[in-house]
Amino acid sequence: MARVSVEIKDHIAHVTLTRGDKMNALDDAMVKGILAAGAQVADSDARAVVLSGEGKSFCAGLDLMSFMSMGQSDPETWLMERSHHDANEMQAVSMIWRRLEIPVIAALQGATYGGGLQLALGADIRIAAPDTKLAVMEMKWGLIPDMGGMALLPKLVRSDVLRQLTYTATPISAQQAADWGMVTSISDDPLAAAQALATEIAGKGPTAMRAAKRMIEYAESGASQAEVLLRESAEQVKLIGKPEQMEVIAAQMQKRAPVFK
């Protein structure tokens, strides 16, 4: 059965994990479904993504049976393969969303553990229900986060917070996650809030939005101040005075929504 659904409407891609009866746990079919959904969105006209999970939990992490089967194979064979740019297949579950040119908003509820948390970290923005529990769960099984968590978490939280989360595998509340920088905001209806934010984003200049995401990624990459300043100018040159920006200005002056071709 399909593990992930994709609906693209009004330039917003609604990507939903559809294994709610299993807390959207990640098995092989789910992993491949997430990667296929990311590729589908990349080839679409979407300007924003809402990433969510059906049922009581966003994603409870790796499916136990999948975890057991992985332990019976040679980990070097599938962990060390760089099959998706600089990532392996499991790391691509989170990194495919970070690599998208458009903003991704994750709506979280219930258990957001292990691989599920790392999937959420691939989004640009995370909106959580008050009952959300988040955990870097891998140490519970004698492992470390290996689905992009160590590429993404250090950009969000302090080193001591990262160490406590990783060393203990203890779930934390949505409020604690927000205080520590892992969650952007808390909402009683995170899906509705994510959809509203995606609608706002999709109404802005799509070329400028892609440039903004590229620019933020570059600025966070460790580039020097001089390199960031130069990249700012280079990105802006591609926007100023172009038809899309002229339409944005006209729409502002005429107090109407812009229309982008």
TrEMBL record:
Organism of derivation:
Pseudophaeobacter arcticus
Its family remark reads: Belongs to the enoyl-CoA hydratase/isomerase family.
From the UniProt record, give the pathway where this protein acts.
Answer: Lipid metabolism; fatty acid beta-oxidation
Identify the SUPFAM superfamilies for this entry.
ClpP/crotonase
CDD domains per the record? crotonase-like
Q: Which UniProt keywords apply?
A: Fatty acid metabolism, Isomerase, Lipid metabolism
One Pfam assignment: ECH_1
Identification of the protein by name: Crotonase/enoyl-CoA hydratase family protein
